[in-house]
């Protein structure tokens, strides 16, 4: 089997099974594991999959540019944002992450709600300018990919806040790979906020379910509530539920 044929076969298996086990594929094709691992490395370099120990998982498309991400799963993100916004109660202090799904939360927030919104996203803060909520904007080094503050100053500010809920965005949600994102500083920021929040609510559109990125935020079991589209695969939802996650398909 030629290299390109093998790669097409690997991508077909990934689409069909949601994962690749290098040892099993090598045995099935009568090839060495080194050959399959080399193919996986090259496919990962093209952004077509995410390598993990022993094989590969689907790569999240949510690591693209902000403009690209705005066009992915727009209806799903609107539904998630609407549901997330309905969870916020008067008087609460909540932390809203950056990203396209977080912007949908803001778009569906009751303008009259009296609460405190903490965010490290200048886009989220700006969108709340005509709302009744108090807005606390965390500063730091601007990570332009997601338009959020990261770094030492941002982490220090976060350590002094105890939000009732953290509405977190991710690029990947997987039962074994956990909650992941594409940048180490962003992962550290999300982890720090999650560690101080009373409740962690993860907002994940369908393309992020079963996918993985390079940097781990936390194990999936750390999630209190996972908000995902109504069309999310039932088997995936069952896997998360079995791990103690409250899955809300909206």
Automatic annotation (TrEMBL):
Q: Which organism is it from?
A: Sphingomonas alpina
Keywords recorded for this protein, A-Z = DNA-binding, Repressor, Transcription, Transcription regulation
Tell me one Pfam family matched here.
HTH_DeoR
Specify whether Transcription regulation is a keyword of the entry: yes
Instruction: Identify the Gene3D superfamilies for this entry.
Output: 3.40.50.1360, Winged helix-like DNA-binding domain superfamily/Winged helix DNA-binding domain
Q: InterPro entries given for it?
A: Carb_Metab_HTH_regulators, DeoR-like_C, DeoR_HTH, NagB/RpiA_transferase-like, Tscrpt_reg_HTH_DeoR_CS, WH-like_DNA-bd_sf, WH_DNA-bd_sf
The HTH deoR-type domain is annotated at 3-58
What name goes with this protein? DeoR/GlpR transcriptional regulator
**Molecular function terms from GO:** DNA binding; DNA-binding transcription factor activity
Do you know which PROSITE patterns this protein is assigned to?
HTH_DEOR_1, HTH_DEOR_2
